[in-house]
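Readers outside the structure-tokenisation community will struggle with the description of the input data as it stands. What matters is that the chain and its backbone geometry are given together, residue for residue. For illustration, here is how one protein appears when written out as sequence plus structure tokens:

…
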Amino acid sequence: MLNFALCDDNLKILDRLEKMLEIIFSKNNFEATVSFKTSDTNNMLEYFRDNKADVVMLDIDLKSKTNGLQLAKEIRKINKNAYIIFTTGHLEYAMVAYKFKTFDYLAKPITYDRLEETVKRLFEDINGHPKKYLKIDNKNTIIDESEIHYIKRDGMKLVFHTSTRDYYTYSSFNKFQERLPDNYKRCHKSCIANISQIKDVDPVSCVVTFKDDSTCYIGPKYKSNFMEVLKNYGNFE
């Protein structure tokens, strides 16, 4: 699930932008939501300090002491990976805006077609970076790999467990194993663990406990190699 955060000094524009995005998400089966919107730059910074946002859409001329460019600079200090999309009626800002690793620049008034084009291109860009996001099905369901605690086989389905929810897809481990980063290791015939999300390992009971207190088991066939990997990873003895 991608989280979008919006900032514009005009509340009517904010509401319209949110509605257009929701239609685009639904129409294209994009796993995304507008998680936050505000007309206050301080509120936006507070949100970024305490919450995860994948995409931020900023008006440049915010009619406050802090404009959209300054806000983007502060956001970049907090989150270096978020996609930044600027919106403005002042085209002279375009070249300056791109120095903040800007994904796109939308001239106001923003049309539905232009916005949909940008959102589609954003998802295509994300899908082209498998080390950051994982596309798990044909419905554009995308998960940040760092948020997955484990991947577990449940009958014909795979369960991608995160701290906020579980995602399900009908597939096999083989389809995903080669696409996963090195911190994902098989610990059981039915489970792949994200080592960076592990809180504790009990080698006697062969139980892995993750940071959200969820658990999975270590299978006898995988125990020796898995424990060696944990030692080499540096967080476990």
Remarks:
- The chain has two domains: 2-129, 148-233.
- The chain is about 30% helix and 30% strand.
- The first strand starts at residue 2 and ends at 7.
